[in-house]
Amino acid sequence: MPDVKLLWDIQMLDEQRKELESKLKEGELLEELKSLKNLIEAGKLQFKNLKEEYLKLKKELHLKEHDSESIGEQIKVIEQKLYGGVITSAKEIEKNSMKLEELKARLKQEDDVALALMEKQESMRLQLEALGAELAEKTESFRRLHGSYLAIQQNYRSSLAQIPLMRQKLLDMVETGLWQKYLEMKKKFSDPLAKVEKGTCQKCRVGVSFHDLRYLKEGKDLVHCSHCGRILYWEK
Ligand SMILES: [Zn+2]
What we know:
- The protein has 2 domains: 19-174, Helix Hairpins (Orthogonal Bundle), CATH 1.10.287; 177-233, no CATH class.
- It starts with a helix and ends with a strand.
- Helix 1 (4-26) runs antiparallel to helix 3 (90-173) and helix 2 (30-83) runs antiparallel to helix 3 (90-173).
- The protein is 77% helix and 4% strand.
- The chain has helices at 4-26, 30-83, 90-173, 176-186, 210-218, and strands at residues 193-197, 200-201, 231-233.
- The structure holds zinc ion.
- The site of zinc ion has 9 residues, from loops.
- Zinc ion (ZN) binds next to loops.
């Protein structure tokens, strides 16, 4: 009585091996990892550029503050001259008063500019903070995804590593004549065995005759599909 079940189990193992090999090669999650990495790189660049701009603005603001201080000093000096009784001539008083007004107007202008810069700086700071948080989150996602990727790959590899011994154990039990027939069929089909379910060959989907079905269930000899020619396997 030919033990087709052994052949079937071997064929299943071979298919499993092929599937595992292709999954290993295809690298599940790899595309996702790559696109996440690209996003992180782009985010880092954006952060770096914004930070540079922010520092430039900070410097600019610092200079403005310095300018304001120096104008403030000049104002103080003139005020002292004017109100401290240092100058008494009407012409000098008028000249200094004009200078004082001019300086005060400039100070106001400087302060307005500085205020606008400060507002801009604050909005940039918030933007930087948000970008930084986003980057940290993406980096963490990447770390986790990469861990899953490695675990999945490792899983495929260890499943794959178990197949040869399992296959050999089955092969040792198959009678030589049956194995030769299988190998002969293998030249024609990558999957020489077809399972019969609901009276139908599961490879070519053509119905198996009642006669063949009964013969198959008796299990005395090999039964081939009348349509595709594969060896039929019926699971008891
Ligand atoms: Zn068939």
